[in-house]
Amino acid sequence: MSMEAVFFDMDGLLVDSERVWLEIETGVMARLGAAWTPEHQAHLVGGSMERTIDYMLAVSGAEVPPGTVRSWMVDGMVARLSAGVELMPGAVELLDAVRAEGVPAGLVTSSLGEIAGAVLKVVGRERFDVIVTADDVTHTKPDPEPYLTAARLLGVEPVRCVVLEDSPSGVAAATAAGCAVVAVPSILPIEPAPGRLVVSSLTTVTVADLRALLSA
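The structure assignment produced for this chain is given below.
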């Protein structure tokens, strides 16, 4: 089976932003008068902004409008990411290798477009043929809609696509969409499964490995 597209997750897969999220979430929770721990973050990894805000308000018990918390989160993330973000080992190299072979590449993230935009200023928007953020879908990961949307925009079949993810919710979304998956677990463990390759780093993954997943 030919490989028609490769889709990259953003947070924790393309860029080392999970620690940035922890930093911003901790600051926002302090404003809400409560503590925030890595365990709280692990509960939300790969989820939507709305889910994060609802959880933070529930944990803190603060009577602050969700829109205010959203602004604190978005403004904090954009400012922090605009100041610089660290790329995950092997991610951009694999992305460039995919494009060098003429295979379309997409960025598919549960982050808001404003936050993705800050990252893309560092990574390079021109590296991607399609970009799907939380602003572009009704349901974010683990729903398959983000990956189905990316495939539709490129005019490709999901079953001929490979997804690179770091979270269980992202893997669930890609699998439900019918895509093969390369998982690089960051905060939460991910188990091997048919049509899924689990690795510790993208530095060990080649374009040939991605193609092999579709012919397995």
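Interim note for the steering committee: The mean pLDDT is 94. The chain is about 45% helix and 10% strand.
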